[in-house]
Specification:
elongated, about 150 residues, mainly alpha
Length: about 150
């Protein structure tokens, strides 16, 4: 099995990177949709229904499959012999960042359900602030992987 993983390493890495890009795009965009939904849309209006459709499809059709494939390809990469030194700090920092990113994804999914029932109580400003979290986590993850501190 390890030989197959080692031979597949470039493909796994490429698929992992593509998955991360798709996931990050959604993590950046969905909170921005929530900002506009909060500030510009009246509950139970046709525009509300449009935003809900866009948010639902972004989350379920793009973000969640991208998150799952990011995890799958990342775990497979971690199993390739010699790639991860688990005695170092960086893989644990990266793992914490990924868990944080996954938690943020789940928080966004929960917020979508709140919009769905017309009970959003957060301001556009709060969504703008939350929109910074994936950027911070991305910086931590990339620095951990590239600099390997």
């Amino acid at each position: 099995m390890t030989a197959i993983l080692a031979e597949s390493y470039p493909w796994l890495k490429a698929l992992h990177i593509m998955s991360v890009i798709a996931w990050m795009a959604g993590l950046f965009y969905l909170p921005r949709l929530y900002v506009y939904h909060t500030e510009q849309v009246t509950t139970a209006s046709p525009t509300d229904a449009l935003f809900q459709t866009m948010e639902h499809k972004l989350l379920r059709v793009i973000m969640t499959p991208a998150m799952i494939s990011t995890w799958v390809f990342g775990l497979l990469l971690a199993l390739v012999p010699g790639i991860v030194d688990w005695s170092a700090v960086w893989p644990w920092v990266k793992t914490a960042g990924i868990v944080g990113m996954t938690g943020f994804h789940m928080w966004l999914a929960g917020r979508r359900k709140v919009f769905e029932v017309g009970e959003n109580e957060f301001s556009g400003r709060r969504y703008r602030m939350m929109n910074e979290l994936p950027t911070v986590l991305m910086v931590v993850i990339v620095l951990a992987v590239v600099v390997k501190f």
